[in-house]
Amino acid sequence: MKIFINDIPVFLLGSEELEEDAFYAVVLDSKFQKITTRAFIDDVLIINATPIQVEELFQLMTDKALKKVDSITISSNNKKDLTRYIKIKFRVIRAAGGVVDKEGKNLLIYRNGLWDLPKGKLEKDEDIRSCALREVEEETGVKVVVKEKICHTWHTYTKNKKYILKKTYWYQMECLDDLQMRPQIEEGIDDVKWMSLSQVRASLYDSYRTIRVVMQEYHKLLKKQTL
Length: 227
Fold this sequence. Notes:
Helix content is 28%, strand content 41%. It is an alpha/beta fold and 227 residues long. A hairpin with a 2-residue loop joins strand 7 and strand 8 (114-116). It is elongated, with a radius of gyration of 19 Å.
């Protein structure tokens, strides 16, 4: 399981999943050392962390940006129980969005000062694919058809002092009609734009890591479809 917390990827792994030749700048055994982020730098490995310790770390990372950290890997002897505990302690919200294609270009939105992909939360009794379709069309004004699932991502944030764990499902989409293309201003979207691959790469350089991961998975899917 990979969760993005304040734009830092956190990997939850079973002890048997650890790669023997992987290098970590900081290795911390929580059985004998208190988990403190002051010494965290580059890639960090935490072993033997209890669910409560992981919960506290997630909350700390959500509240405070760790600018020197590239990634954190947490190894557990019982990954299943740890994952279940995190989902219980955080309010889980589901959302969906898509990567829309039109003649080799992709559709991006500009929100909160960053380029992003259109997405949004599920409504009551709504299925995932319908949510993805609705959110993309509402946020961009572009009519689309939903194709294959690309991947799903996890990230955390706070709302009304409550910790939220959001699972977002991403779909490959194709443009049907963009004559009514316009940003959904009421959702804080300032611009909608078709971009070439080079433009997407440049625009997402300073955007969310989550979105860059989605685009990487999207291009893996395209490559697979051409084989």
